[in-house]
Design the sequence.
């Protein structure tokens, strides 16, 4: 695999220009390539991904449309750059490819928080990518709720824990905590407010108004807002490329702490 990108580069140089690329350019390319495969080596990364399911009874739940694709793309990107990744994942139809990713499967927000708290103290970077349900049924039934003859059942809800905010309170200065914000309106203001309220170092905003940036797609269009409220807008890209942009931004923060 070491040879592949270099020979690919040489081949494209030969094809495109009809001559070999300058040696110093090849060297610069290789330096960049190898930096990118090791710039997270020795780092522990915690990522949450996917939806949570909140049980109503043994056959029903409250959930959402999250596919988990962005969180899994982030996990693969971190692993390919040398990190040890713990991916706390809600129910999704995906599997992790890299052996550097330890997938911890959970269902509810409560379980997701418990698993995150086990690894958060030893995590250098934590990325909260899951679409966590804000509420859960107060009294999930042990047996299937039968259809009532006359009455429509009422499900009483209780608030779920806010995982990002809980970790934000426990965060040490050298740890980096990143959140996501999926908004439909007043996007930047809402995202900045979440960044402050949850004590995040960075928030990745996606707007549901952007085409190609909604649940289940392979692409995403994000803006990154940092704790000093500076903002960078990125183009619509494949989720794996978006993951690369996000990690590059996190590395800039890590360089400062
Ligand atoms: N988040 C979390 N735990 C929750 C709710 C959200 O960890 N119970 C995290 C998400 O993973 C995301 C960020 O917080 O990184 C923002 O999630 P979002 O659902 O947009 O925020 P909410 O606080 O739920 O705000 P609202 O639903 O009012 O937009």
Sequence:
């Amino acid at each position: 695999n070491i040879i592949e990108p270099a020979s690919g580069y040489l081949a494209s140089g030969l094809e495109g220009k009809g001559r070999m690329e300058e040696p110093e350019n090849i060297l610069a390319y290789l330096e960049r390539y190898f930096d990118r495969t090791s710039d997270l080596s020795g780092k522990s990364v915690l990522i949450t991904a996917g939806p949570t399911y909140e049980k109503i009874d043994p056959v029903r739940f409250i959930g959402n449309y999250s596919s988990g694709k962005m969180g899994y793309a982030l996990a693969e990107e971190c692993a390919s750059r040398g990190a040890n990744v713990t991916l706390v994942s809600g129910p999704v139809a995906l599997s992790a490819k890299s052996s550097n990713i330890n997938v911890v499967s959970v269902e509810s927000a409560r379980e997701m928080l418990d698993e995150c708290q086990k690894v958060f103290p030893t995590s250098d970077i934590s990325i909260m990518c899951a679409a966590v349900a804000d509420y859960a049924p107060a009294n999930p039934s042990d047996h299937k709720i039968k259809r009532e003859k006359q009455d429509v059942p009422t499900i009483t809800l209780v608030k779920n824990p806010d995982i990002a905010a809980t970790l934000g309170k426990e965060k040490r200065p050298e740890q980096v905590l990143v959140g996501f914000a999926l908004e439909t309106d007043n996007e930047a203001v809402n995202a900045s407010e979440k960044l402050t309220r949850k004590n995040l170092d960075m928030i990745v905003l996606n707007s549901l108004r952007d085409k190609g940036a909604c649940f289940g797609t392979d692409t995403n269009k994000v803006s990154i807002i940092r704790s000093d409220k500076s903002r960078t807008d990125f183009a619509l890209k494949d989720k794996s490329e978006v993951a690369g942009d996000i990690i590059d931004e996190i590395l800039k923060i890590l360089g400062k702490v």
